[in-house]
């Protein structure tokens, strides 16, 4: 297994974790939030440097459904990250106070809501690339092939994650946050900090799995249609 691929996978997982951590603003002090966000932006830049060849070959590849959705998510992520970067400069209180605006309530709202959309888009993006991610992961742990039993266990685990992700979406009022509506939920970090991260991780897992299996279903139907022609 290529060591660079392992390194990239670890960095990408850290980036996803940082997105969730940044959503826990009321658990962090403002300085920690800004530090996490700065590291996240740095990892995004590193991710794009590693994938720079992909951009050069976009117009040369034949676009199927998976690649189209992947391209849409990449463009959406680029827009979201740009919004996050610009708004973070305008509301920074610790790391970049010289660029901050006074008040800027609307900017804070845009910054916050964009963060939730980023989590959704990242989940979909990972779903389009999940087979690649899993292949790298299996190579890291020295498991080039899976048995029928291992496959069944993984599918059961996926189903549980998806079910918990649906539950967490309601518990965390995720839909309301995506629709730019205020929700009255305030997570009690004194009661359970781990629960916050587990809930949002399961939401990411839900969109990863839904995208991955949805695209597999579309691909299977396309192959059957071609076989019948």
TrEMBL record:
Q: Which residues form the Flavinylation-associated cytochrome domain?
A: 74-130
Indicate whether Transmembrane helix appears among the record's keywords: yes
Domain of life from the UniProt record:
Bacteria
Q: Looking at the Swiss-Prot or TrEMBL record, what is one Pfam family this protein matches? A: DUF4405
Where does the sequence pass through the membrane? 9-28, 34-50, 71-91, 116-141, 153-174, 194-215
**InterPro entries tied to this protein:** DUF4405
- Establish whether keyword Transmembrane helix is in the entry: yes
Alphabetically sorted, this entry's keywords are:
Membrane, Transmembrane, Transmembrane helix
**Protein name as it appears in the record:** DUF4405 domain-containing protein
């Amino acid at each position: 297994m290529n060591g660079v691929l392992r390194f990239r996978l670890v960095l990408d997982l850290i980036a996803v974790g940082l997105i969730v951590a940044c959503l826990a603003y009321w658990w962090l002090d403002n300085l920690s939030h800004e530090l996490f966000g700065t590291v996240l932006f740095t990892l995004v830049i590193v991710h794009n440097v590693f994938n720079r060849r992909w951009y050069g070959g976009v117009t040369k590849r034949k676009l199927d459904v998976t690649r189209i959705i992947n391209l849409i998510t990449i463009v959406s992520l680029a827009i979201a990250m740009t919004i996050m970067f610009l708004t973070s400069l305008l509301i920074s209180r610790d790391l970049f106070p010289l660029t901050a605006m006074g008040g800027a309530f609307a900017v804070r709202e845009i910054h916050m809501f964009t963060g939730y959309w980023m989590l959704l888009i990242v989940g979909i993006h990972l779903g389009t690339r999940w087979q690649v991610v899993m292949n790298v992961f299996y190579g890291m742990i020295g498991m080039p092939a899976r048995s029928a039993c291992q496959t069944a266990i993984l599918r059961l685990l996926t189903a549980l994650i998806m079910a918990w992700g649906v539950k967490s979406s309601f518990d965390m009022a995720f839909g309301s946050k995506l629709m730019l509506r205020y929700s009255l939920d305030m997570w009690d970090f004194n009661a359970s900090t781990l629960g916050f991260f587990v809930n949002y991780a399961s939401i990411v897992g839900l969109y990863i799995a839904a995208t991955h299996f949805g695209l597999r279903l579309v691909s299977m139907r396309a192959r059957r249609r071609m076989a019948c022609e």
